[in-house]
Task: structure prediction
Amino acid sequence: MPMRWLITGSSRGLGRALSEAVLQAGHQLVATARDVAPLASLVDAHGDRVRAVSLDVTDPVGAQRAVHAAVEAFGGLDVLVNNAGYGNVDSVEDTSLDEFRRQIETNLFGTIITTKAAIPVMREQGSGHIIQFSSVGGRVGAPGRAPYSAAKWGVEGFSEVLALEMALIGVRVTIVEPGGFRTDFAGASTSLREGRPEYDAVVGEAARRQRAYDGRQPGDPARAAQAILALVSMPSPPLRIALGSDAVSIIERTDRARLEELARWRALSSSTDFPS
Result:
């Protein structure tokens, strides 16, 4: 049965791959991007099953307009995918407060704003699925990407709370944590600054590694899109899912280290309770 989708950041990368897969699977789509010109080919190929809507995810009025476009065109909204985002590389010291705010506004508040726009529609339907694109950097601090990781960790916490509330009204929530995929996230979408020599071992190395990694990432965007389609067809989808073997390995290693650290400091942690 066709589903009604809204995907942010549809013009390129994982958002574009998912938009194409959704339409090829016979679903209906509101494809959004700040610049809708690259979406014209989707409209040409799929006609009335797609609407191209200009959206800056930090604009609450624009988010309401995009959700309304889905309701007006297709009668409702079954799947919201909060995919739009970006992340630059630089040190904490050299990243301006304005740049921190811009990245957090897009990556975290953009997700919150679009989610809030969609909730009333899904609540009235008593159904829906919200897909929140986080990152492996939303589980593990990403060197040189403090604003991005701060925002994506915020997306994770926000979405955990959201999932508990949405379960009461029949709406599912899944947090997607991609590793490295062959999109322009590591290229034109990113500003890479190696920065000061004092931080070169972390920040400079992150910038150099990303330049060398571009075009060699293990993740296939088309296969990621198929994984998302599989998730929305599940009766009981996971709250979280890593995408890519690199993401699985990094998260597994980090979670194991966290459990070991928790156990190592258990006595000191527990010593703060009132005596029993």
The longest strand covers residues 171-178. The CA atoms of residues 108 and 154 lie 6 Å apart. The chain has a mean pLDDT of 93. The beta strands are 4-7, 28-33, 50-54, 79-82, 128-133, 171-178, 240-243.
